[in-house]
Fold these 2 entries.
Entry 1:
Amino acid sequence: MEIFRSKRVFVSLLLSAITALLAILSWEIIVGFAVYLGSYLNVEKVSLNAWSFLAMILLALAVGFLTEKFSVKRILKFAVPIAVIWAILSFAAAKYFSVNLFFMRVISVMFLPIFVVHLKKLWLIDSELTEKLVDLASAGHILEGKSADLRIESGLKLLETVFPLSETIVFRLDEYEGLTPIGRARNGNSIDSLVERQNAWRESVALCERALESRQTVIESDENKAKSAQIALPLIYEGVCVGVLFVKFHRDFERADQNVLESFCGQLARNFQRKELRSKDLPNKFWWSFLSTNSAENRIGTTSLIKSLMKEQSFSALASSYLKEAHAIAYLDGTLAYLNRQMRHLAKLNPQEIYELDLFGLLENFKTEVFSEPHLAIRRVLQTGENYQNELYFQKKNRTLDLQISLVKAPSDDVSIHETNVTTKPACFLITLRDISAVKENEKLRSDMASLMSHELRTPITSIKGFAELILMDETISEENREFLMIIANESQRLSKMLSTFLSVSNLEQSDKKEVSKTAVKLDTVVHEVVDEMQESAKRKRIRLVEQTNDNLPPIAADKGLIRRAVSNLVDNAIKYSPERTSVMISTVLEADFLRVVVEDRGYGIDRNDHEKIWQKFYRVVRDGQDKEDESTGLGLSLVKEVIEQHGGVCEVESEVGQGSRFSFTLPRL
Ligand code: ADP
């Protein structure tokens, strides 16, 4: 920048010196000429000496430098009074001391550099402005995605696909006010003779000329011939007629089609104007463009090109009004850029309020218990660049909104927005709100139904189990019947266990995080208790339970009963899905922000494809040679996941078939 500036100063000094030299030289010639003529013109007939010459050059350099640094207005404020004083001094010196102060030369050497340097500054600003305009127009060009020609072509294709057209012609209105066809499409094989074709052409041109003259759509329809019609539509952009579209319907022309065609013509006219402007020379192609009227006109054209690009870009914002979701766009400084109709409606904003509102003001309208500090959400989005998502429940209206805040990133330079793999920078926020009340209501209804059913099933199952066991006490029943009764008792026991786990999972799913009653819990104690409890069943399978706990673990805030159930389910699974004479290791680890419980076994392992699925309700892994009917319900891990997530932790699994599994979960530290 500094170098650039010093280069500018250098050019100004050079220009000032050259201007001064030329001015002095001109005066010398004028003086010489006057002396030669021997006239008594009142010019300074004395030639300059070396010192005066040097002084004048220095004066020009000083003036040039100051003009480069300050505005011409400021310079003239001083230069004019100095010129007046110099005039008085020159007059006095000539009259009383017969000394020539070279008034005219000094004035020229002072004012001409001001003029030249100022002109140079204007020229630089003008070129920069033009460059920026061209840049802006060509940046838009990249955004357009397709060239104007291609757009005209695809537009004609669309027309032909939508309407039963036998002919489409696009005329351009050229400089001499004549219609020149620039695009033509015909459908079907025409067997008309040459004369007929010429007549038809003349007819279509005449129709187009009428449309041009009246600046309105002209329709010639023939109701009898299967509603065929010929239509000429003027292409008008910003009040200027740029061409005409001629279409021929061979059947089924309806009045409503006219509106569609007219809207299409609006777009076609824009494309036309764009093509026209792009075909012109760029305004700053040559250095003298500054002085060219043609170039100035092209610059006006460029601004109207930019206007048309901006208009097309505004369509995308308008289009979002038609989406079901409520949207708002906010710049990184928190100013709201756009709110769609649905958002205005949801936030109950009137036009005045929208004007005064900023991002936080808008989010204030959607505060709930889980979204009580919008600024924290915004901060997280800014820090991580990841979307923030939450479900907001409004009790008063019994409405649930799905909120998403995203950080929109834009390409850092002027590359196409359609391109991927480019470096991006945060540009703005997108806030989306979706009304999911109906979905939530539905989910709740389903879950309520399921809970109710399981509740209702409990009593009959208990009876079945109770009576089966009662009959089993009878010594007289046959061996075969005893076996059947055993099956009834075991299966009802399994069913009852399944129901109670299912109810626990459903209850947890429905409860809010805050509803879990948390107390300070020592995780190592919980693990110890579970291991103690499980020793019996492990021994039955000759499995060694190894406990590796850390006594220095800080307590966590949790529902002890639930955590115990989660650990117990993991240990139970490890025993269940391991062969005899293996070991299961249960350990607790202290991590930066979490405590982790790990249950590791040397059992059957789980296929990679099942790692995600095992956490779903009722999902069971099928293994060769393993009885599926045993204790398994497919609910154990879904309960673990639900419990851990309610406590703000995450569950993980690492496992390989035949090698064993490593289940773990984290819980946040207090
Ligand atoms: P289940 O009541 O069937 O144990 P879970 O939800 O606890 O239901 O487990 C789902 C499935 O994941 C089980 O069918 C089992 O095959 C598999 N699984 C769970 N834990 C282990 C483990 N430690 N080793 C191997 N497989 C396991």
Entry 2:
Amino acid sequence: MNDTRDRLRIAVQKSGRLSEASLALLRDAGLAFRTSRDRLFLYGENMPVDVLLVRDDDIPGLLVEGSCELGIVGRNVLDEQRLAGADAPTAATIQPLGFGACRLALAVPDGGAIATIADLDGSRIATSYPALLAGWLRAQGLRADIVVLTGSVEIAPRLGKADAICDLVSSGATLAANQLHELATILHSEAVLARSPHALGAVPTQLIERLCARIAGALSGAGARLLMLQAPRSALAAITQLLPGRERPSVVGLDGYPDDIAVQALCRTTPDWQQLEELKRLGARSVMVLNVERMLA
Ligand code: PRP
Ligand code: ZN
């Protein structure tokens, strides 16, 4: 697309793990939106910036063809496109966004025939990430049939289409709901801000830079939350893994309770209820989320 536009377009996942936090970040960056009737488009009301709501897998392509200048997408999706496209131009990562942490993992049916990584040899593996999976299989010296699916990968084993899957895992709820469990992690990922490779796009560079600076500003303070909780010391590792922030949490002892600790963690976005419930399940008590007014790193 080579039209001249005076409005910047940013692509965001329409419905999925990253959707809510992506829009929250844009609002933290000071953008206000009106939703189009078809809900595919958010019209920026106070800046010439519009949001396209799309499938996350389509975001690298939209950036490469120049239909959008910026995108918020999982690093895994960019990595896949880079590997699959060989020398084709790719979207550049501007910065990690501190949310959407997940892993690309191999998972197999509970109680099934595949119990170890070696058992994957000769199996059929369903995935939306064939290039990343192929690279991993090669490195492990394994052969498998890769069944490429664009959605609902988790039901492939039940449908008899595959013996294993390679998909994103965040909370693990999708795997559990489908009687699957993880066998191996292929890569860790999180949401990143990405940019179209077209340096001379249709939209003024100034506007792109202004929005990127706003996003960086929003990330470095505003919108931050302080998560406080108490927990058994033995649960610390599991709790730290679940914390949405990237900073190291502060951990202090509790007078008179040697087996317990208090944890404070800075979060870039508000932890959602599911995350809080998982923390509780791991033994956290007195879980509190506080607004951070100001912050000086
Ligand atoms: C991923 C993945 C699972 C879900 C896992 O989907 O495909 O459906 O997240 O999350 P959980 O472990 O918390 O249950 P994503 O939001 O990336 O959307 P997509 O697969 O439709 O692209
Ligand atoms: Zn996807």
